[in-house]
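Subject: sequence -> structure tokens, single chain

Hey, anyone have a minute? Need the predicted structure for the following. Not urgent.
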Amino acid sequence: MTHGMRTDTYTPYADGGDRSWRDTAGRYALLPLRIFLGVTFIYAGLDKLTDSAFMKSSGAGSVGETMRAARDSAAIPALIDLALKSPTGFGYAIAFGELAVGIGTLIGLLARMAALGGALISFSLWMTVSWASDPYYYGNDLAYLMAWLPLVLAGAPMLSLDSALRARRRQRAGGYR
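Reply:
Had a minute. Here:
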């Protein structure tokens, strides 16, 4: 039998208790953000993987040319120098990373880890590609970074594989209320 303090913040309302629309809205508040970021990152990853020009080390629209163009205005040019050692490999890493982050976020599997991955991708893009945006709010990578932070902190408490797995573990352990 497991003893301890309950760490989840969402009561299951198993007793059929009265709940207001504000309670319900609060419980589902992160769901639109999860859907938006999940779909967007899945789309971004698939877009890169299906764009034959992007996955090249040079040429118009290639990941290599994009990095070379951003290198001199980046906040951390060393990140770009590192990526330029293998632009095609870096392109695949970003594309598969975006895909993994998007899927994890959308289905809510390892949601905090997926959100941290999304935040790190957005941070690296902000420090490199969109750093030169003037004024700063024209660069969308900073906004994406800020959008990931609530999901890093809260995870995916509703309509997620994480919550289903947590409920299953709780049930196997004898449950508690």
